[in-house]
């Protein structure tokens, strides 16, 4: 092995230490004359070299944390046409209030001392004060007849944006929370006053006036605060608690296929339409018995129906459309069609009644299927005994939709009543109408999408993705409120155990 750095040609190392070389000579330092300056890192500029653009003094303030009991949402502030007074426009917005108070709408307003507002054109537009109640997400709309007529003013007055004392629009929300104590005369003693003033100007876009908020002022106990918008990521709210329920397995004797629900023209009565659908009934041999003049197994068609207590349905337009009840027999894939002459004439109703959507009490269409399996024994008078150990009523609620000028039906909710207990039927992804014998928990694609080991037994609502096991669902509901499959918000988790055995 050769020696690195050896200076001997024979490969032998010299004895003794290496030769040391003296350091190179340093260049001479220049002398500093009295007229020269030496600049160091912390040396200030000399007087003769003053900075032509000095940095402005930046004020450093600490924000004050104040509870705002009334908050007007600036983005919702707008003007809407007054239907009863053409040419006038009304102010509307949404707001939150933790106590009751009053809102004042004032045009061409000037702020004074002690949270006071003064209208400079009160002779033309009188300020309007409206009381409000406690609540979040309230909608405010100026009373009809009190709005502004833009044609009465010059655009320069409405659209000015510079620093001004008079604002074209000001909204004052004020309330005085009362303490639980009561004065000697019996009236409640007042607490801390709180007022919020929102100042805005008008803007013209595509010939229409819009509202733009410039400033929001908060007065608390006579002290004036100016609300600032901070460009900082908002602190995410705590994740909502997601309810985790276990599904109840109930044998359904009558099942209406929602996808088959439709209306068909009545050939014998032009202009009327009949309800039709397919359904399954598993009640064996007990289909059209009458018991105390009541039809045991029957289907009822009801328009504009309202659900009451104890699985009752009430028609709100019974004088125009009487409910129709028809018996049915046992069988799968049966076709139901409403009897001729009992259908609906859509021209008799407003479209707003027929096409109503959202959460509602009255549904344009409801189908009630009732099944009461009876025992084969009969009473002394020959009627079947009501050995109904499992009375069932299935209610399908639907709305109408208009597509290409024709009305369609869409089922929105199905309710199942079993022995007086109300269940809401849910459509679950990856279950469909399969029976227990077709389900194999070891099939590929049946594992939980999170742990990839346990079978999927938990469904996310309202998106209906059956994608998790119950163990992962218990941890997920405290970490996020998004579905692992579609990322939609989770409202509820439903645990469903599918039997692989042969028990009924």
Shape: extended
Backbone CA Rg: 39 Å
In DSSP terms, counting alpha (H) and pi (I) runs of 4 or more, how many helices? 3
DSSP strand count: 30
What percentage of the residues does DSSP assign to strands (E)? 35-45%
Oligomer: single chain
Beginning-to-end CA distance, first to last residue: 87 Å
Largest sheet: 7 strands, antiparallel
Helicity level, as a percent range?
under 10%
Q: Which class best fits the helix and strand makeup?
A: mainly beta
Arithmetic mean pLDDT: 75
Which blocks of ≥5 consecutive residues have pLDDT under 50?
1-11, 37-45, 180-184, 186-191, 284-295, 376-389, 432-442, 500-504
EC number: 2.3.2.27
Keywords: Lipoprotein, Metal-binding, Myristate, Transferase, Ubl conjugation pathway, Zinc, Zinc-finger
Family: Belongs to the RING-type zinc finger family. LOG2 subfamily.
Pathway: Protein modification; protein ubiquitination
Describe how the helices and strands are arranged.
Elements: E1 70-72, E2 78-81, E3 89-97, E4 101-111, E5 117-119, E6 128-132, E7 135-141, H1 155-159, E8 166-175, E9 178-182, E10 188-190, E11 194-205, E12 208-220, E13 223-226, E14 243-246, E15 254-256, E16 262-265, E17 273-281, E18 290-291, E19 294-295, E20 298-307, E21 313-315, E22 324-327, E23 331-337, H2 351-354, E24 362-371, E25 392-403, E26 406-418, E27 421-425, E28 458-461, E29 465-468, H3 470-476, E30 492-495
Parallel strand pairs: 14-30
Antiparallel strand pairs: 1-3, 2-3, 3-7, 4-5, 4-6, 4-8, 8-11, 9-10, 11-12, 12-13, 15-17, 16-17, 17-23, 18-19, 20-21, 20-22, 20-24, 24-25, 25-26, 26-27, 28-29, 28-30
């Amino acid at each position: 092995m050769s020696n690195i750095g050896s200076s001997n040609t024979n490969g032998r190392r010299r004895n003794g230490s290496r030769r040391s070389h003296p350091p190179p000579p340093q260049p001479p330092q220049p002398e500093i004359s009295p007229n020269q300056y030496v600049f160091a890192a912390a040396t200030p500029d000399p007087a003769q070299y003053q900075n032509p653009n000095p940095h402005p003094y930046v004020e450093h303030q600490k924000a004050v944390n104040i509870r705002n009991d009334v908050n007007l949402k600036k983005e919702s502030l707008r003007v809407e046409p007054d239907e009863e007074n053409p040419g006038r426009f009304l102010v509307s917005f949404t707001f939150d209030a933790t106590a009751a108070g009053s809102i004042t709408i004032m045009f061409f307003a000037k702020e004074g001392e002690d949270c006071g507002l003064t209208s400079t054109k009160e002779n033309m537009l009188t300020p309007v004060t409206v009381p409000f109640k406690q609540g979040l997400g309230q909608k405010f709309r100026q009373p009809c007849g009190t709005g502004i007529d833009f044609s009465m003013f010059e655009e320069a007055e409405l659209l000015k944006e510079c620093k001004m004392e008079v604002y074209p629009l000001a909204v004052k929300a004020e309330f005085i929370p009362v303490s639980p104590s009561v004065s000697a005369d019996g009236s409640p003693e007042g607490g801390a006053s709180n007022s919020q003033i929102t100042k805005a100007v008008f803007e013209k876009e595509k010939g229409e006036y819009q509202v733009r908020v410039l400033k929001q002022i908060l007065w608390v106990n006579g002290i004036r605060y100016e609300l600032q918008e901070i460009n900082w990521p908002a602190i995410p709210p705590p994740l909502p608690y997601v309810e985790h329920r276990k599904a109840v397995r109930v044998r359904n004797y009558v099942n209406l296929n929602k996808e088959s629900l439709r209306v068909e023209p009545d050939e014998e009565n032009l202009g009327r339409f009949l309800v039709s659908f397919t359904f399954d009934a598993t009640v064996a041999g007990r289909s059209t018995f009458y018991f105390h003049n009541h039809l045991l197994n029957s289907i009822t068609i009801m328009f504009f129906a309202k659900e009451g207590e104890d699985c009752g349905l009430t028609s709100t337009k019974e004088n125009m459309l009487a409910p129709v009840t028809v018996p049915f027999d046992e069988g799968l894939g049966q076709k139901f069609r409403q009897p001729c002459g009992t259908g609906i004439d859509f021209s008799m109703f407003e479209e707003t009644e027929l096409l109503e959507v959202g959460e509602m009490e009255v549904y344009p269409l409801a189908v009630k299927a009732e099944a009461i399996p009876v025992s084969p024994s009969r009473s002394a008078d020959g009627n079947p005994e009501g050995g109904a150990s499992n009375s069932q009523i299935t209610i399908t609620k639907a709305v109408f939709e208009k597509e290409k000028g024709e009305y369609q039906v869409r089922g929105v909710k199905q309710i199942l009543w079993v022995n007086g207990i109300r269940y809401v039927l849910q459509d679950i992804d990856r279950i469909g109408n399969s029976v227990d014998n077709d389900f194999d928990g070891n099939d590929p694609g049946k594992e939980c999408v999170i742990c990839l080991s346990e079978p999927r037994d938990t469904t996310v609502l309202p998106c209906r993705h059956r994608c998790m096991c119950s163990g992962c669902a218990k941890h997920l509901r405290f970490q996020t409120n998004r579905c692992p499959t579609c990322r939609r918000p989770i409202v509820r988790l439903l645990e469903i155990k599918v039997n692989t055995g042969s028990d009924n």
